[in-house]
Amino acid sequence: MPNKESFIHSGHRLRLKKRYLDEGLEFFSEHQVLELLLYYALPRTDTNVLAHGLIDHYGSLAAVLEADYEDLRRQNGLGDHAALLLNLLPYLWRYYQLSRDNRQIKIIHDHKELAAFAVALFTRQDKEAFYLICLDAQNKVLRIVKMNEGGLDSVHIKARTVAEAALRYKAKSVVLAHNHPAGSLKPSAGDIETTNLLIALLNALDIGVQDHIIVANGKYFSFVEKGILL
Question: pTM for the full model?
Answer without folding.
Answer: 0.58
